[in-house]
Amino acid sequence: MLIAGIATLLLLFLLLALARPSWGGRATPMQGALPPGPTPLPLLGNLLQLGSGRLDHALMELSGRWGPVFTVRLGPRPAVILCGYAALRDALVLQADTFSGRGAMTVFERFTRGNGILFSNGQRWRTLRNFAVGALKEFGLGTRTVEERVLEETACLLGAPFDPRRLLDNAVSNVICFVVFGSRYGYQDPEFLKLLDLFSENFRIMSSRWGEMYNIFPSILHWLPGPHHRIFRNFAELRVFISEQIQRHRQTRQPGEPRDFIDCFLDQMDQVHKDSERHFQEETLVMTTHNLFFGGTETTSNTLRYGLLILLKYPEVAAKVQAELDAVVGRMRAPSLEDRGRLPYTNAVLHEIQRFISVVPLGLPRALTPDTHLHGHFLPKGTFVIPLLVSAHRDPTQFKDPDSFNPRNFLNNEGEFQSNDAFTPFALGKRMCLGAGLARSEIFLFFTAILQRFCLLPVGSPTNLDLTPQCTSLGNMPPAFQLRLVTL
Ligand code: HEM
Predict the structure, then answer these.
(1) For residue 270, what are the CA distances in angstroms to 249, 255, 393?
(2) Residues of the chain whose pLDDT is less than 50?
(3) Residues 89 and 421 sit within 8 Å (Cβ to Cβ)
(4) DSSP codes, 175-224
(5) Residue 36 lies inside a defined structural domain of this protein
(6) Which residues of 121-136 are buried (b: 16+ CB within 10 A; e: fewer)?
(7) Neighbours of 322 (CB within 10 A)
(8) pLDDT digits 0-9 by tens, 194-248
(9) Is 32 inside a domain boundary?
(10) Which value, to the nearest 10 degrees, does the dihedral of the CA atoms of residues 162, 166, 169, 175 take?
(11) In the chain, how many domains are there?
(12) Distances (CA, A) of 177 to 131, 186, 333, 413, 417
């Protein structure tokens, strides 16, 4: 309905031709034909064919007719869609450099201006990504420190009643706070609660139709009232918050003795002689810090929340995880990352949760760095590409009965854990999520700590629990639900 209303408004604007090439604002150099796809209407492109339901499902349906590599027009702008595991692998892995550019999204473009890791390109992106990977390793990712952090936060979760949304957001954000700011916040701290509200509201609006439409028709939506305007107010507040944190760090730091990610970046800024291209500037630090929060909080906490909802719906699966935890870990100590290899069923359930929910269903857009060919199609440099990650997870050539939740997708006949290359919640290739290791550790540690001690009970009947996501496109969020934890 909303999309139909917006479409009518857009038609009124048609004569004024306000729209310019968008979902990014950067023009895509188009030489030659792109892969075929449904016939577009002027200005609206294929929006009406994509319908008013879920964009990811509509694109998968179109792939049935147009194949794994096809073009749709989101408004005036063409986007090449990669659908199914084979197309994603052939592009993102087998042509990793070619597909490593980031496709612009207006909503982020206006805030980041191509700065930070998520939305930069070329040498700046390479330099910042390498720096961040190194700095994050130093401050906990991939080491026992993360285990300690997650366990500290889990301890705060335990104790009914349990509000999954707020508490899980707090816990997950605190892990990133520790890495970036060097400290955690109390769950009642008003500064912290404000920070979380800003991030989660932005994620929600960006994942809504308003966010989708803003990316497609920025110059029209700019003049229409709606929640999308809050995105930019929230961004401005986040910028102030992060800048204040940086100032506090400046006042208390010992150069050369970094306590956290911000100190590490400030140390790098001191070495101006090595930074001839000026990649290490305060504005870049603000954007990079924002990227780590934005990339690392909603994605992880949505996964945890969705996972709890799925386990409420399938209590027999939760019971099997608990039996495995009892047998392997017992109740005298907390589960640790070292236990993961000895918990095949639990590991399979966590993979299946991530597969089933596809928390970032459309991935993040890529842009081609040189011209290339893919599956017999010529694709010019700059082509805007949508890697439809959910399509790998729903690919019937890779998973049996892919629309159902079934942990056997990640178990062999002997009941051992079995990975699957089509498991791609973090995307593939050179731009793959740089927090994947941290996220997987968090997901494992939070789930096992909760399930080791508690039985999950839904408020209401488990058969009535709806697993349909609340918002789609940027992120799949679980519908609101309540649960009670009862000590085992
Ligand atoms: C369940 C949790 C998570 C999921 C599902 C997820 C998923 C993704 C996806 C799909 C991308 C886009 C990759 C591409 O361009 O194709 C991405 C990028 C990124 N993620 Fe994550 N992520 C998660 C957790 C995290 C965490 C914990 C952090 C921070 C430590 C993080 C930081 C980033 C950053 C900085 C990028 C940009 C990488 C680049 O452009 O080079 N993510 N993530």
Answers:
(1) 14, 8, 45
(2) 1-31
(3) yes
(4) HHHHHHHS----TT-HHHHHHHHHHHHHHHHHTSHHHHHHHH-HHHHTTS
(5) no
(6) eeebbebbbebbeebb
(7) 20
(8) 988 898 888 888 878 888 888 888 888 888 888 888 988 999 999 999 999 999 9
(9) no
(10) -70
(11) 1
(12) 18, 11, 26, 42, 33
Assign 356 to helix, strand or coil: helix
Residue whose tokens read 């955690």: 184
Q: Is residue 170 part of a domain?
A: yes
Q: Which of 476, 55, 54, 438 is nearest to 302 (CA)?
A: 476
Give ligand 1 pocket residues (Cβ under 6 A). 102, 117-118, 129, 291-292, 295-296, 299-300, 303, 359-360, 363-364, 387, 425-427, 431-435, 438-439
Token duo for residue 376: 């017999």
Determine, yes or no, domain membership for 30.
no
Nearest to 53, CA basis, from 1, 110, 15: 1
Query: What count of Cα atoms within 13 Å lies in the side-chain half-sphere of residue 199?
Result: 27
Expressed in angstroms and rounded, the spacing between residue 426 Cα and the centre of ligand 1 is: 6
What per-residue confidence (pLDDT) applies to 1? 41
As a whole number of Å, the CA-based R_g of the chain is 23
Residue in the structure block whose two tokens are 């104790």 = 159
